[in-house]
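Q: Hi! First time asking for a complex rather than a single chain. Here are the components, and I think there are four in total. Is that enough to go on?
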Amino acid sequence: MDLSNNTIERICKIFGHLDALEKRGVDFVSSKELAGEIGATEYTIRKDISLLGGPGYTRKGYEVKSFKKELGEKFLLTKRRKACIVGLGRLGTALLDYENFQEDGFEIVAGFDCSVNKIERIRTSIDVFAVSRLEEIVEARDIELGIVAVPAESAQEVVDLLTKAGVKGILNFSPVKVNIPTHIVHLDMDFTNALRFIAARFIMKKT
Amino acid sequence: MDLSNNTIERICKIFGHLDALEKRGVDFVSSKELAGEIGATEYTIRKDISLLGGPGYTRKGYEVKSFKKELGEKFLLTKRRKACIVGLGRLGTALLDYENFQEDGFEIVAGFDCSVNKIERIRTSIDVFAVSRLEEIVEARDIELGIVAVPAESAQEVVDLLTKAGVKGILNFSPVKVNIPTHIVHLDMDFTNALRFIAARFIMKKT
DNA sequence: TTTTTTTAGTGAATTTATTCACAGATAATA
DNA sequence: TATTATCTGTGAATAAATTCACTAAAAAAA
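A: Yes, that's all I need. Here is the structure of the assembled complex.
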C-alpha cells in the first residue's frame, strides 16, 4: 500500500478518534462527523477511507468497533510496539511516565542516560540503563522505536547509536536537525518550531 | 500575505536553520543546501522564498544574516513573544525550563496549576500561579501564547480559560481534540499520534 | 579577457490533493 | 408500501503544490 503522508496522518487521527468513540460507547460515526473532528472535509475522509476499503453503511456511517479493529490490523497499530527513551532529563523523565503511550499500544520498555548518577536517582517503574548498554538492550528487548530526548549537542550521536542498534523508527524531541538514514522512519517534534509556526500564522494565515 | 501551511512550515524550518548557520558563522547558503536540510527540493525552497521576495545572490545563495533578519521582520519572529504554561505536571515543568524557548525569542513568563500545593513545591525562576488567576495574569503580562500541558480531562476547560483571557495562539500538548475558536491559531502536539504516524509509515511509506 | 560553472528567479508543465456531483443503498417516515 | 432523507463510494472536475526548463547574473577558471 502506498498512501500519502497527509492521508496517513489523517488515518492516525481517525484511529485515535475511533478509540475515543469506542470508549464512549458510540456505535457508528459518519464521514462528516469524523471530518469535523479531525479538521478535514467529508470528501477527503471518504477518499482516505476508500483507499483502505473500509466498509461504510448507508445512512449510518462506519461501525466504530470493527472499523477501528480493521485500521489497527491494516496499520499494525494494535500490536504493542516497544519503545525506549534516550535522555532522562526533565523531558525524558516526563515521557517515561506518560501514561498515554501505554494506553495506546506503545510500551516504553527502557530508558537510557549517560549519567550513571542520574540513573540511580530516577524513581520509575521502567528499567533505566547507561547509554553504553543501548545496543545490547534494544536487541534483547526487541525495541522498535527510539525516542530521543537528549540535548542538541548529543542528538546526532544518540541517533547513530539507535540506528546501529536497529530501531525502525525515531521520534526526535531534540531541537536540531539530525541525520537519519532513509530506511528509518522518523519524525521531529521541535517545540520551538511549533511556537514559531503559530506565531507565523498570526501574520499570514491561510485556511 | 497569504501563504499555505506547508510553505509557512518550511519557512519556519528555514528560519531555524539560518539561526544555526549564523551561530556557526556561515555567510551564505544556497537553496540546494537548505532543501537538503529541511527535507524539500531546491525548487520548492526557491518558490517559497520568492513569495517573500528575499534576495538571493548568483553563485552564492542567500546571505544568512540579512535573510534571517528579513524573515524575522516579515513574520515578526524576532519580537519576543510571551507565553504561559498551564499544567505543571512532569511535562509542564519540563517545558517551564526548556531553555530553547528563551533562546529562540519565546519567553515563558508564567506557569499555572490548579494545585496550590504543587505551586509551592515547584523550584523554578519563573513565576507560578493558581489557575484561578490566569485571566488576570495573562492580561497584566501581555501573554500571547498559551501552552496547554494538563491531563485530557481538563484540557477543554483550560482552553476556554485561555480563550477568554485573550491569547492569540495555543499549543496543545494534551492528547485530546479540543474545541478552539477559529480566530485563535492553534497546533496539537500529540505524542501518541506521532508514534502512531511513525508506526503506520513502517507499513505504508511513500517518499 | 573569454569561457565555464553555479546559482537565483520564474512561467509553464506536471503531478498530487481536494472537492464536487451524482449513483446506489437503506433507514426512517408517511 | 411508497416516499423521503441521508450516507457511502467514486469518477470527473477543480484546485493546489511541486517540479521542470530555461533565462539572467556573476563568480571562478582558463
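A: The longest strand of chain B covers residues 106-113. Let me know if you'd like any chain examined more closely.
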